[in-house]
Amino acid sequence: MSGVIIAWSVTIAQLLLLAAMACALLRLVRGPRAQDRILSSDALYVGAMLLLLTFGIRAGSTVYFEAALVVALLGFVSTAALAKFLMRGEVIE
């Protein structure tokens, strides 16, 4: 019975993460300012990372966890670079 509860919980979590990613994508497209778009892309990559983690839980494979780690690292670096670009107008000094 606990396996069924975990399977349903992971499925519900994946659906809610997809809904959150859809909201972030909507803000990315319609965001009135660049800051809103950067924040929504940040939320989008966090949602993608968590979705990969739930796929890893469902499949029982470590490949998804490694992919989630790569997505998290690239997302953080891209968010920091975009924020620096908005503040100073250049990324590399």
UniProtKB/TrEMBL annotation:
It comes from the Bacteria. This is K+/H+ antiporter subunit F. Belongs to the CPA3 antiporters (TC 2.A.63) subunit F family. Its main location: membrane. It is a multi-pass membrane protein. Keywords: Cell membrane, Membrane, Transmembrane, Transmembrane helix, Transport. It is found in: Cell membrane. Pfam families: MrpF_PhaF. The chain crosses the membrane at residues 6-26, 38-57, 63-87.
